[in-house]
Amino acid sequence: MPTKDEIFEKVRTTLVDALNVDEDEVKPTSRLRADLNAESIDFLDIVFRLEKQFGVKIPREELFPESIFQGDAEFVADGKVTAKGLAELEKQMPFADLTEFRKDPRLDKMEDLFTVDLIVNYLQKKLGG
Q1: Rounded CA gap, 100 and 106, in Å?
Q2: In the 8-state DSSP scheme, what is residue 106?
Q3: Which CATH class is domain 1-60+114-129?
Q4: CA 82 to CA 54: how far, in whole Å?
């Protein structure tokens, strides 16, 4: 079982290769879209590379469950994630730190959840940590 630091280093290498960014840009708090300029197509590439790097199967929706909020009135109202939506998000992403998001659960802020640390936490759980 690799340590969190070992997982981070492998994730960093993966993101540097996939997104063509400098190593020093990839920090635990780096947001995939806002800080590392990842686009939708990059998420598929990242998942593929992580699967190879760690030897695990990663269902895309398991790591990046963006679609759970598309068009569901129970989960989103007036551009904000509802209490039921937050519960669903917590259920589908137990590896995510929702502390800040809960304070301002606007749907457009959801992509800020997808950080390097989120990937590391996900992999740590996936690898049995």
Answers
A1: 11
A2: B
A3: mainly alpha
A4: 35
* Count of alpha carbons within 13 angstroms of residue 108, beta-carbon side: 2
CA distance 81 to 71: 12
Identify which has the larger pLDDT, 66 or 4.
4
DSSP-derived secondary structure for 109-121: GGGGG-BHHHHHH
**What's the confidence (pLDDT) of residue 8?**
98
Q: What ranges do the domains of the chain cover?
A: 1-60+114-129, 65-111
The model's pTM: 0.90
Question: Do 12 and 117 meet the contact criterion of CB atoms below 8 Å apart?
Answer: no
pLDDT reported for residue 36:
98
